[in-house]
Amino acid sequence: MSTEPSASPEITGGELLVRCLASEGVKILFGLPCPEIEPILAALEPNGLRFVPIRHEAAAVHMAEGVYKTTGQVAAVIGNPGPGSANLVPGVVTALHEGVPVVVITAQHRLGVVYPAPPSTFQGQDQIDLFKPAVKWGAPIHVWDRIPDIMRIAFREMWSGRPGPVHIEMPMTVIYQPGSPAAAPIWQPRQSRAAQPQASREQLEQAAQMLTAAERPVLFAGTGVDRSAANDTLLDVAELLGCPVITTMSGRSAMPTDHPARVYGFGPGADVVRKEADVMLVVGSRMGNLELPYDKYWGPAGKHRIIQIDIDARNIAVTRPVELGIVADARTTLEAL
């Protein structure tokens, strides 16, 4: 009798993809079934994922957005070749503008009948180009043993800077193709990307000195507070400083609406607070044109000494000059302050 260990049972590309999703903590896949994705659907339950059927693909993305905003968990959506995948786009565009991470998977016909698709191909569609302007990053998977590699890249891009949707396309031939899991190892998230950037000691000391010396400090909270689970820490800082907090339009959930320190951001009270502030701590907000429509609501540019904390360097000093820009996670930075 042979004592050599038996080879690992082969699995489909669809199951390998599902195992990659499971390793990243994805628990829900929204979409509609079709023959091209049957191996994916068959692998969901054994790997701890739930399939949630929908009536329209755009709603699938909105549901995934809701999962993330309420639980902090990333969900995945899947589209069938052609119009099914195209229907995802309106929801994906919304997720991109909202900074919501979503894994967008599109199935594709076998490569011999697409790219380019002749008139004989049923609902042939160039889905890679279709999704390019709607996602942070996207790529096809044409080789079975590259599935974990490309999924690692996708999640790295999704979490780099401001989160957002990423797009993966798989032709049905790769989804159905069998292979040995040993040939395509899956890494854990901590092995495949670095931690979020952190504020330096010098930046923290400078921010603390500016805030403690301020006569009329104010906190300005955006969606980044909610997304980094910095809500309680934001309140601690506000109570420590004894200052008001203004939330952005999309960051309304950053603090309770009935908190005594909260000032409604789009009323005359907030106009007074903004104009009279001498130091402003902006956390998780780009200070976009909805929050900063006209100088008359803020006073002249350069009037405030602004400290801006954001996870994405591209969001620093977009509409107002800042005295201190900190590219870092909101929660850990506020905790350190």
Spell the H/E element sequence.
Answer: EHEHEHEHHEHEHEHEHHEHHEEHEEEH
Q: Could you name the CATH class of the largest domain?
A: Alpha Beta
Spatial gap, N to C terminus? 66 Å
Reported CATH architecture of the largest domain:
3-Layer(aba) Sandwich
What would you report as the Rg, rounded to the nearest angstrom? 23 Å
Work out the number of β strands. 14
Work out the strand percent: 15-25%
Any idea of the CATH topology of the largest domain? Rossmann fold
Number of domains: 2
Globular, elongated, flat, extended or rod-shaped: what is the shape?
Answer: elongated
Protein structure class: alpha/beta
Average pLDDT, all residues? 90
Plain-language structure description:
By secondary structure, the protein is an alpha/beta fold. Strand 6 (about 135-140), helix 7 and strand 7 (about 165-170) form a beta-alpha-beta unit. The chain folds into 2 domains: about 10-190, Rossmann fold (3-Layer(aba) Sandwich), CATH 3.40.50.970; about 200-335, TPP-binding domain (Rossmann fold), CATH 3.40.50. The strands form 3 sheets. It has a 6-stranded parallel beta sheet with strand order 3-2-4-5-7-6, with helices on both faces. A 6-stranded parallel beta sheet has the order 11-10-9-12-13-14. A two-stranded antiparallel sheet has the order 1-8. It has helices at about 15-25, 40-45, 55-70, 85, 90-100, 125-130, 145-160, 170-175, 190, 200-215, 225, 230-240, 270-275, 330-335, and strands at about 10, 30, 50-55, 75-80, 105-110, 135-140, 165-170, 180, 215-220, 245, 260-265, 280-285, 305-310, 325.
